[in-house]
Amino acid sequence: MTGVAAATRAATPTSAEPAAPRSRRPLRPARIVLYVFLTVVALGWLAPMLLAVYASLRPYQETAQYGYFSWPRELSLDYYQQAWSGAEMPRYFRNTFFITVPAVLLTLFFASFVAFALARFKIPGRRTLLVVFTAGNLLPPQVM
């Protein structure tokens, strides 16, 4: 190798060099309390839903005899099959699909125009409009 090629190769950085390790901040007691609180709240929200799913997989006679929190003797999807066939669920799913898909696509289409205008043009009160639109997406129409 010539001296120029060796100097050029030595000057170029290689990607094989490890990056400097990031230092982790120590866990403060306030952060631990926050994590514990958020975990308890999440479990509090999930527990009723999980209990409902668990109860739906057990026969009613077993739940009535042994209680909701007993160990299951039999789990089945019979109640889901009865609901699917007895209540004409495929028809309702199809109707919901034909209503929600166009509604979501149209909402996204028109919202993109508003987002472009709020991002590109100096409109007076655009931050207020952004907050109003965001709040409108967070609240269901029945509440508004």
Characterise the protein shown here:
The chain is built from six helices and no strands. With 144 residues, the protein is mainly α. The model has no long low-confidence stretch (mean pLDDT 84).
Major sheet description: none
The averaged pLDDT comes out at: 84
Strand content: under 5%
C-alpha-based Rg, rounded:
29 Å
What share of residues is helical?
Answer: 55-70%
**Termini separation:** 76 Å
Total helices: the number is: 6
Q: List SSEs in N-to-C order.
A: HHHHHH
Q: What would you call the shape?
A: flat
- The unreliable regions are none
Work out the number of β strands. 0
> What structural class should be given to the helix and strand makeup?
mainly alpha
Short description:
The protein contains 6 helices and no strands. It has helices at residues 3-11, 29-56, 60-66, 78-86, 89-120, 126-138.
Task: Throw out a few tags for this protein.
mainly alpha; 68% helix
Compile the SSE list and pairings.
Elements (H helix, E strand, L loop, with lengths): L2 H9 L17 H28 L3 H7 L11 H9 L2 H32 L5 H13 L6
